[in-house]
Amino acid sequence: MKLAVDGMGGDHAPKSVIDGVLRALNEFPDLEVQLYGNKDTMRPFLTAHDRMQVIHCEEVITNDDDAARAVRRKKDSSMAKMLEAVKTGEAHACLSAGSTGALMAGGLFQVGRIAGVERPALATTLPTLDGQGFLMLDLGATADAKPEYLLQYAIMGVIYAREVRGIQNPTVGLLNIGTEDKKGNELTKAVFDLLKASDVNFVGNVESRDLLTGVADVVVTDGFTGNMVLKTIEGTAGIMFKMLKEGFMSSMKTKMAAAMMKPQLKTIKDKMDYTEYGGAALFGLQAPVIKAHGSSNATAIFSAIKQCDLMVRHNVCPTIEKTIQA
């Protein structure tokens, strides 16, 4: 697989990006990487590798840039050149931990939508109690959705869950304010009817409080709701671990208890660790475009590269295209 990587995107770039890339190159013998970024900035962290090509870029797209204009105006940026490599076929997929808005806009305008896909969706795997995780989409690509969009999200999510995660007949849930069939607003009521009449394995409405129990393999919602749920889960997990740490460090007795419970606490932390689940994929584009978390460390970058490899290897985008057109 030929992968284009934005070496300048993310809070800890370029070091975390380069470290993650080098780890992936060592573990995936058929991986070739085109690393885009400022060579002077990246040089202290680079190690020569025969399957990594470093392409110099003078510009960087930041979170302060206007997302819709940045990719078009900063043509010599690491993100723009990375996306161009996918557009021209020089790379099979691309990865960035930079601006989400710019990556979505660039993915749409440069890589392009699959024919028949109404709107792309941002999707990621979130943790569950059993450690299997579930796929949720949309997480912010389209705030104002139509019922037909969510039906396509479900179809794309099922393809990913089946081809990449190996789930034979993935279950699909519709995020709602209750589990009853008639619950929700006009959008969710219309989507419920579409999903029930479709070929997907629809299990009905699901509530946000049940998401982490693994109530469905794929959960669909509009981008406005999905983004808020995602950030609530991330924030709650962070606060929970902070409270646990403060509690265990409050006295000598609790510190001793923490030492005894260290393996169990590590297991809980690993289940909730986003770095093990890869990035968020933009479903509905002609090639895999992966958005890694802005605070990604080397492990998160490695996991996102693994996700790119799986999507390319299992022909996720061509399968989505064939299914949508059929």
From TrEMBL:
UniProt GO cellular component terms: cytoplasm
Primary localization: cytoplasm
Top-rank EC class of the record's enzyme: transferase
Keywords carried by this UniProt record: Acyltransferase, Cytoplasm, Lipid biosynthesis, Lipid metabolism, Phospholipid biosynthesis, Phospholipid metabolism, Transferase
Stretch forming the signal peptide: none
Pathway: Lipid metabolism; phospholipid metabolism
HAMAP family in the cross-refs: PlsX
Cross-referenced PANTHER family: FATTY ACID/PHOSPHOLIPID SYNTHESIS PROTEIN PLSX, PHOSPHATE ACYLTRANSFERASE
Protein name listed in UniProt: Phosphate acyltransferase
